[in-house]
Amino acid sequence: MEQGQFLSAGPAVRQLTGAAVERRLRAVTPGRRSALTLEPEGTRGDHELNPDLYDPTQAMKAAAVLIPLVESADGLSVLLTRRTAHLRDHAGQIAFPGGRIEPQDADALACALRESEEEVGLARDLVAPIGQLDIYVTRTCFEVTPVVGRIAAPLDLTLDPFEVAETFEVPLAFFLDPANREIQSRTYQGKTRYFYVYLYRDHYIWGATAGMINNLVEVMLGGSEAV
Q1: Residue 223: per-residue pLDDT
Q2: What is the residue-averaged pLDDT of the chain?
Q3: Which of 21, 56, 60, 110 is the most buried (most CB within 10 A)?
Q4: What is the pTM of this model?
């Protein structure tokens, strides 16, 4: 499927189970690209809507995030965080738990689980990893590996008050509805930049977070198996 293209989200897709999400992720994982060997065509990132942002000569920093899918009687929801307002980078923005891959991390999964435990108190043994999305390249030269994990509700979280102002959940069905995705723009350093946006209640989800959600949606809507 071409980037940015969606199939119609029918009722069955809107009611995806955790097991169905896992099957769809497993089906596409073998084609994922590795970090630090990227080429412009076929990679994901801020440059999808702004091609001039891609610079293959830039040194990249490896990072990882966890996309937590919370399973409850009401269905699947996506756990997100809002960063505190005093942080130097991306203050106040909506994000997934995650950060730079450190030397002690065995891989992207280990990083995503460690960061989630540090930021929101999500014990790693409560997370069932079910796959990865495409590596996402940011304009700030991070190559982010999004790791998707299933988590059973209810959650008992303890937030790091320095980094995380709040957590909230968004029904996966909300993201699967194409009507809820927008492409917006703003002028930055004299250039018009475009980015994906999801507006959920009073939460403005945009940038890399929205781009990774967009990738998740494409995977979910790209299959036709029964849920």
Answers
A1: 46
A2: 85
A3: 21
A4: 0.87
